[in-house]
Design a protein that fits this description.
By secondary structure, the protein is of the alpha/beta class. It contains 6 helices and 4 strands; from the N terminus they run ααββαβαβαα. A 4-stranded mixed beta sheet has the order 1-4-2-3. α3 links the parallel β2 and β3. It is globular. The relative contact order is 0.22.
Length: 190
Amino acid sequence: MGPGSAETKIKVSGGTSGVVTKKPEYKLTLEASMILKQLLEEKGITVKLTRSSDNVDISNRERAELANNSKADLHVRIHADGSENTSVKGFSVLTPAEDNSYTKSIYQSSLQASQAILTEVKKDQFVEADGIRYRSDLSGFNWSTVPVTLVELGYMTNPEEDRNLSDQAYLTKLMNHVADGIVAYEEMKK
C-alpha cells in the first residue's frame, strides 16, 4: 500500500469495461495514453509511458517507481470509472489526500496539477466534469515521490460515456484538454 505498510493490494487487475462497447478499460486507457503522448510531444513535453502494449505485468508501485526514477515533473495515471448505477457519469481527477502521510511532500504540487487539468476539461461544455476526489488508499500515489494525478476519463458503465470514450474524435478532444491542463501546470511551476 505504501512504504513500510504491511497492507498489500492485487498487483494487476483488469478494471472495468464498456457497457455498450464491451471494450476493456486497459484498452481504452492505452488508446487515450497514446493520444496524450502525441499531443504532449507536439507541445515539446517529454513523455515516458509505463506501457505501450496491452500485455504488461506491472504493479502501481512499479509504475510509481518508474516515474520516481525518471525524476518526472508529473506522473499522470489514466483510468476510466465504473459503477453499478449506469446513470452515473462524469470526468474526474483523483489526487493525494492532504492528510496522507505517504504523500505530504508532493500533496500541493499534485493538487495544482489536478486542478489545472480539471480547469481545462471544464471549459468544454460537452464534457461532464465531476471534480476532484482525494485519496490516500492508492498505492500508485503512496509510492510516488514526484507529483502525481489520476485522470478518470468517464464511466464506461454509462452507455453515453462508453460510446463517447470509444469515439476517436471525442477521445482526442478530451485528451487535448488533459494535455492543455498539463501544460498549464508546467507553466505554473516556472
